[in-house]
């Protein structure tokens, strides 16, 4: 396995307020990426990218309130590892799917107070939009196939992220 294949590709997922202004999002993304870069310092990664999942303002507001974020928050961020072998368009939908899974779980648990989610993932041409079909395509593409070394690298990145990400 090459060094690149043995390293995770890190994605910062951004669940966005669909009504937020571009300037607000840019500042927020800058803060998130700075924290991600700091969390990856000294760790071998295949790459780092931010992936957006816009949600309707009522759904984002419910998420913001549930997570205790301020009224000025325009995004909720997290980090995930992906296989470095993924094509960029597949990496995008994989990151969006991981963020969407978190939202679907919160919705199922009643944490979004009944606010409906209408999520639109940027699926590659020819893919079905059904979540189960997307999941199958991602599994088939090896989206989460990581070496033991890549998993350990991600664990240390996630720990560093969690220590500093509370302010996002």
Give the number of domains.
1
Largest β-sheet summary: 3 strands, mixed
Strand content: 15-25%
Distance between the termini: 36 Å
Pick out the low-confidence regions.
Answer: none
Shape: globular
Structure overview:
With 168 residues, this protein is α+β, with helices and mostly antiparallel strands. The chain has one domain. The chain is 46% helix and 15% strand. The protein has 5 helices and 3 strands; from the N terminus they run E-H-E-H-E-H-H-H. The chain has helices spanning 22-40, 57-66, 88-108, 131-141, 148-164, and strands at 9-17, 47-55, 75-82. The protein has a 3-stranded mixed β-sheet with strand order 2-1-3, with helices on both faces. Helix 1 crosses helix 5 and helix 3 (88-108) packs across helix 4. The longest helix has 21 residues, at 88-108. 35% of the residues are buried. The mean pLDDT is 93.
Keywords:
46% helix; 5 helices; alpha+beta; 168 residues; 3-stranded mixed β-sheet
């Amino acid at each position: 396995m090459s060094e690149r294949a043995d390293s995770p590709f890190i994605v910062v997922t951004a669940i966005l307020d669909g009504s937020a202004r571009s300037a607000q999002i840019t500042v927020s993304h800058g803060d998130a990426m700075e924290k991600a870069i700091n969390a990856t310092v000294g760790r071998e990664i295949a790459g780092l990218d931010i992936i957006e999942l816009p949600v309707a303002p009522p759904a984002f507001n419910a998420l913001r309130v549930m997570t205790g974020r301020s009224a000025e928050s325009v995004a909720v961020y997290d980090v995930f590892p992906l296989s470095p072998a993924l094509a960029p368009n597949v990496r995008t939908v994989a990151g969006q799917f991981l963020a969407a899974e978190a939202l679907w779980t919160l919705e199922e648990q009643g944490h979004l107070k009944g606010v409906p989610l209408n999520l639109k993932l940027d699926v590659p041409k020819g893919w079905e939009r059904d979540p189960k079909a997307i999941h199958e395509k991602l599994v088939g593409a090896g989206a989460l196939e990581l070496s033991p070394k890549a998993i350990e690298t991600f664990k240390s990145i996630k720990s560093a992220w969690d220590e500093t990400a509370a302010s996002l």
